[in-house]
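Case 510 in the screening queue. Each case pairs one protein sequence with one candidate compound; here the compound is 86U. For every case the pipeline is the same: read the inputs, emit a complex structure as tokens, and attach any notable structural observations.

Predict complex for case 510.
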Amino acid sequence: IIGITVKKSENFSQWYQEVVLKAELIEYYTEISGFFIMRPATMYIWNVIRKWFQEHIDELGVEETNFPMFLSQKSLEKEKEHVEGFAPELAWVTKAGDKDLEVPVAVRPTSEAVMYPYYAKWIRSHRDLPFRLNQWNSVVRWEAKQTTPFLRAREFMWQEGHTAHLTEQAAGEEVLQILEFYAGVYEQLLAVPVVRGRKTEAEKFAGGYYTTTVEGYIPSNGRGIQGATSHCLGQNFSKMFDITVEDPAEKGKHIHVWQNSWGLSTRVIGVMVMIHGDDKGLVLPPRIAKIQSILIPVGLTAKMSAEEKDAHMKKVDELLATLKKAGVRADVDTREGYTPAWKFNDWELKGVPLRIEFGPKDAAKDVVSYARRDTGEKGTIPIAELTTKVPELLETIQQDMYNKAEVSFREHRLKIEKWDDVVPALDAKNVVLIPHCLVPECEDKIKELTTGRSDEAAEGPESQKAPSMGMKSLCIPFEQPEGLVKGETKCLNPECSRLAEQWCMFGRSY
Ligand SMILES: O=C1CCCN[C@@H]1CCCn1cnc2cc(F)c(F)cc2c1=O
Ligand SMILES: [Mg+2]
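Case 510 output:
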């Protein structure tokens, strides 16, 4: 293997492409650009996430479904006003064989238009509520922007949940329950901290009523990234698709149901790679690592007799059995013809959280030697304590990875009360919390005011330096800082004369 050829801090985007390729997470689908092959290491992570999330929505009473992947022009028509913005992303099938299709069909970019005509058919009485279905599938959005593995692809795997409720309050409760599950995927499994909040009117899903979101932070470039979204659709879609129930309180009266839709995609894997990876490659949080601990026999020199080698390897097998019995996902690397150093690099590139070396010197002292992938810390563990110490060490690694990322996010989430401090904060790789009026036009202005002037680029010695991108609103955090006095504090945008409504998190973003 050749390792990663660039430093994460020097060329982040090339570093990322190399890591996802060389750690065998993905392969580029070179036949058609914007598509990527998900390899076993990725599917392992995705399946841990899927199992965890599925268990949680099972408890809520969400049932599984699977709808067709195509949708008709007719059903798209029903939600046309908000779809028109997305129209350029729609992929169409116009022919089967050499025959044109009477009516072209679109590949689902999301499944509201596919599912909701059947919600109208199946949901008749309030006794059918709450009605909750989720599907695991992939969707196609023909992105115009540059694609990149996991973060922006023309097809990606996700789950999409679609539910219906009798009241706004019931819908609202579920929106937040699901958002908490999304936060759990990030914080419990991927060791990634997220800020929970609501999208502004400008950034929410236009077809919905409100959007809640978990927002991540990428230390390498200081950008925010949307992690997953849980929307309340209000009655917008039930009015478009005529999904009603009889009013339990008033005979003959019909109520349009209150709906939610929520989605989490394989983007979560890209976020994890970007945050935890280092110059040696992937760094996996133990809870989602297919191999949590790799056992590598060392010190088997040529001058050892065959018997001695066999005896040593027998001990190695016993160690492996002990680790597996302790519930550790362990494996041993007995590949011939590769040096221990070569093996160490290979498993570090693949992000295995804990390496365990075992040589004759270790055997003589009844210990193993370990090396943590996240900190590089080395040490020894008495063989008699493996069963307790290794699981503990893996949990410590998980927690330490989370804590490190949490400190980094917290330290780069700055409360700003003077407009002139904003751009310097962004340039120092921070996201900012500012008092904001929450008016969409004001956000547009803020984006403009914070976009690096192009003359700045001309000044730079390397003229290809692009003007720095402006900041967008990321979310209105549920957890609001102190210091905003309603009716007194002004919106931070110097060209806006409105009063601030809430603290709003802004940043350069994906
Ligand atoms: O984001 C989610 C979670 C899972 C279910 N769907 C919602 C809203 C999706 C918003 N959205 C997002 N992207 C889209 C792209 C399109 F080409 C298109 F026709 C429609 C959409 C579109 O509606
Ligand atoms: Mg999009």
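Case 510 observations:
- The pocket of magnesium ion (ligand 2) is lined by residues 141 (CB under 6 Å).
- Residues 10 and 220 are 10 Å apart (CA to CA).
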